[in-house]
Amino acid sequence: MNDILPPNSASWDWLEEKIRSLMNIYSYRNIRTPIVESTALFVRGLGEVTDIVEKEMYSFEDRLNRENLTLRPECTAGVVRAVVEHSMLYDGGKRLYYMGPMFRHERPQRGRYRQFHQVGAEAIGFPGPELDAELILLADSLWKILGLDGVRLEINSLGQPNDRKAHRNALISYFEKNIDLLDDDARRRLYSNPLRILDTKNPDMQSLVNAAPRLLDFLSDESIAHFDAVKSILDAAGVVWKLNPRLVRGMDYYNLTVFEFVTDRLGSQGTICGGGRYDYLVEQVGGKPTPAVGWAIGVERVLELLNEQGAIIPKFIPNVYAVIPSVNNILIAIQVIQQLRFLGVSVQMHSSIQSGEGMGSMKSQLKKADSSGATYALIFGEEEISRKCLTVKMLRDGHGSQSEHSLDAINDLAEILKNC
């Protein structure tokens, strides 16, 4: 787990602002759920035989009521729990998004931390393939807005329960015939969740997995029609995709469409967005049967990819640095600064380093003004204040040009200072 400090935190603010703006354009509304949920929620939702539940969750017993609780390892289950608990679907489906920290106990590596952050979008209460496509288009739009390249879309269909049951039987039969080639993890999951074996990262098992029966060959006509409709919409929207028949995702709640946006620039942590349809999760957590689809983005990985590409992410700098040569002018300076701030001007005010030492020389303050990155220095000099004026010094024009402005025309001054 790590701290996110200035100036790097500015890139987080920038990315979150881009995401919020895009979510509004797509009519997705913000939801905020607790970081701590009942452990049973994740066991039911994610599946008992998954890496997250078996190995990665931070779980503990509440001291008061002895309930078993877990720091959320993902947010979809919590969003669904909130939707059910608050009867949010009484007037129709909901498009929701969230941002926040998640927790998994895994080996820290590049772009992967034990406390990590996700942005997710969930469309709950919509059965049609157009919503699967809409979620994919939403993520694809984000990459375009951020200027990311080298990101490819991989898609697959997991079908419906009957499709998977037939495929499951075929997988078990196939792996039983090759049981000597399975590692311990695969053998343990052979009868409890053989689909997870296809997601193995063991290089010694890749050829075996690649030759295993494909779920696509067991899809019903209805599942195929749904998947074909998703692909047709993506084609019509100009979104390039690649079929990955081994794509299964890491949670058990998925059905029908699953997808990932991946890159080769982050090594083994190449998935920056993943999701799919989960039509049975609402019922699993206590609600009525309700279709749903969604995805989650790894914020650290997106920022890492932007950095890898050399993207120019704006850093926070104030519009104005307030230079106050004399302590006698602090009161009037603060009044003016507050007016400017309320009018939308970002102002960093100079302050003394130690009590009783005064405000520092004009030269030292202007040096700090320049290093702050501000476009203007606002100088509250004794002489100017006596004439109810102040001086605006341009810091970035190479000449240090100056002009005086009346304290009675703050609105006009604010417009000048915002245009930098």
TrEMBL record:
Its EC number is 6.1.1.21. PANTHER family: HISTIDINE--TRNA LIGASE, MITOCHONDRIAL-RELATED, HISTIDYL-TRNA SYNTHETASE. Pfam families: tRNA-synt_His. It is found in: Cytoplasm. Residues 15-325 form the Aminoacyl-transfer RNA synthetases class-II family profile domain. It comes from Simplicispira metamorpha. Gene3D superfamilies: Anticodon-binding domain, Bira Bifunctional Protein, Domain 2. GO terms for cellular component: cytoplasm. GO terms for molecular function: ATP binding; histidine-tRNA ligase activity. The gene is hisS. Homodimer. This is Histidine--tRNA ligase. Keywords: Aminoacyl-tRNA synthetase, ATP-binding, Cytoplasm, Ligase, Nucleotide-binding, Protein biosynthesis.
